[in-house]
Design brief:
Length: 344
């Protein structure tokens, strides 16, 4: 048995980790790409937990055997003293397949796919300080996980000697593990704003809506927002010119037959007023209006919606925190993949 360490978000954005590890996969997504052995091993589980690495790490991937442990590393964030290992699972099956990789994690243009794919079971949330791994393994105090790597023999031997087995090692550091914060919660104001916009645009396109944002030339997760926008200018068939000038500044709008059905204002800090004002312009069209922000700002939404004139339109407004947006994106993406696999 061996232990491998993998970065949670250094090689790709957190949204991939969220979709294939934290939330898991439906078997029907991967089934079309599996040989007989893979179908036998993976069809037993309702939810699959998959990850992968690029060809540059294939020599490490080749050393992985069924039953080996994989620990996922998250770097230090904000007030944290150090990074930590946040998830662990045992290798169930691996497959070298570009086609499977592309089905799970479509790469950015020009980027190498993660063709060294592997699936885990016995997935556990952990809270292991990276300093503990460094101490047990004799690594430097500044050790971090920068790419897929095996833990050295000294580290494995010391874990087994001190904790008897890997399960007890995980249990020792699993107390007080909190639900992972939203990736957007941890971002600064500018990046969180654009990342949330990108997710909302992707969701809208996956659901079949026409999408608009005034920020189409901006980027998030290394992608242009314009790649998920198919309306350059606000349709004016149902909006007067004065209203259109205000509406075109709304962060994200989903249209159906030129009618705005859903509109979203992303407010990372406390500047809710202008977002409410812009969204209110769509009340006559009975659009569903959303303020998207950090969960800790929900009290501000409650404060604004109870004041004049917004309380009159409270049934039109909803508050969604970043975690809900990320989970919805994951669910919609998974459904889309399942639908494509079924109708293929």
């Amino acid at each position: 048995m061996k232990i491998f360490l993998a970065p949670r978000s250094n090689e790709t954005s957190y949204k991939d980790f969220l979709s294939t590890i934290e939330n898991g996969l439906d078997y029907s997504i991967v089934e079309p790409y599996l040989p007989a052995e893979g179908k036998t091993k993976l069809s037993r589980d309702k939810r699959l937990f998959g990850w992968g690495c690029k060809e540059t790490k294939k020599s490490t991937w080749d050393k992985m055997d069924e039953g080996d442990w994989v620990f996922f590393y998250k770097g230090r964030e904000e007030k944290e003293v150090e990074g930590k290992l946040v998830y662990a699972g045992r290798l169930l099956y691996k497959q070298h397949s570009k086609e499977l990789s592309l089905a799970l994690w479509p790469p950015k243009p020009g980027e190498e796919p993660w063709s060294c794919v592997f699936f885990l079971n016995e997935l556990k949330q952990t809270n292991i300080p990276i300093s503990e791994i460094a101490k047990l393994s004799g690594y430097s105090k500044n050790f971090i996980v920068q790419g897929m790597m095996p833990l050295n023999e000294k580290g494995l031997e010391n874990i087994l000697e001190k904790y008897e087995n890997v399960e007890k090692f995980i249990s020792e550091f699993s107390e007080d593990v909190e639900e992972a914060e939203s990736d957007l919660e941890e971002s600064n104001e500018i990046s969180a704003h654009e990342e949330a916009e990108l997710l909302l645009l992707k969701i809208g396109r996956l659901l079949g809506y026409d999408t608009y944002t005034p920020d189409k030339n901006k980027q998030a997760y290394g992608e242009l927002l314009s790649d998920y926008v198919n309306i350059d200018k606000i349709p004016t068939r149902f909006l007067g010119p004065d209203i259109e000038k205000i509406v075109r500044e709304i962060d994200v709008i989903w249209f159906e037959d030129e009618v705005p059905k859903y509109a979203f204002e992303v407010e990372h800090t406390t500047k809710f007023g202008s977002g409410f004002q812009r969204l209110c312009q769509l009340v006559p069209l009975n659009a569903k209006l959303f303020i998207v922000s950090s969960a800790k700002n929900s009290y501000l939404f409650d404060k604004f919606i109870s004041t004049d004139p917004y309380y009159k339109y409270s049934s039109n407004f909803k508050f969604k925190d970043y975690k809900k947006v990320e989970k919805y994106f994951s669910a919609v993406s998974e459904f889309s993949a399942i639908k494509d696999a079924f109708l293929k």
